[in-house]
Amino acid sequence: MTEPLSGPDCTTMAEVRAGVDHVDAELIALLARRFAYMDAAARIKPSREQVRDGKRKAEVIANAQARAQAAGLPHEAIADLWDALVEASIAYEFAAFDRR
């Protein structure tokens, strides 16, 4: 796969779409790494009750929101995305815990 043009260098929708597709593939690879940590958490935590940690969830979302704001991104939308990501991660971790 060739490296796509950067966003500001794109002049056609085909170039934009190629860039978005490339970033999406990178995001999936990063999500696979993140979910591997959920597998580890399910293996390490001694009880199922420890899977959901509201304090940690709030911390993760606040960190993402602050990083998004610093990067000039729509931090409210990023917080919403991270809420969904954390909930999906918790569900995955519950399933991983139950499999062991």
TrEMBL record:
Enzyme Commission designation: 5.4.99.5
Sequence ranges assigned to domain Chorismate mutase in this UniProt record: 7-97
EC class: isomerase
PROSITE patterns named among the record's database cross-references: CHORISMATE_MUT_2 (PS51168)
Keywords: Isomerase
Binding of substrate, residues: 17, 34, 45, 93
DNA-binding listed as a keyword: no
Entry protein name: chorismate mutase
Upper classification of the organism: Bacteria, Pseudomonadati, Pseudomonadota, Alphaproteobacteria, Sphingomonadales
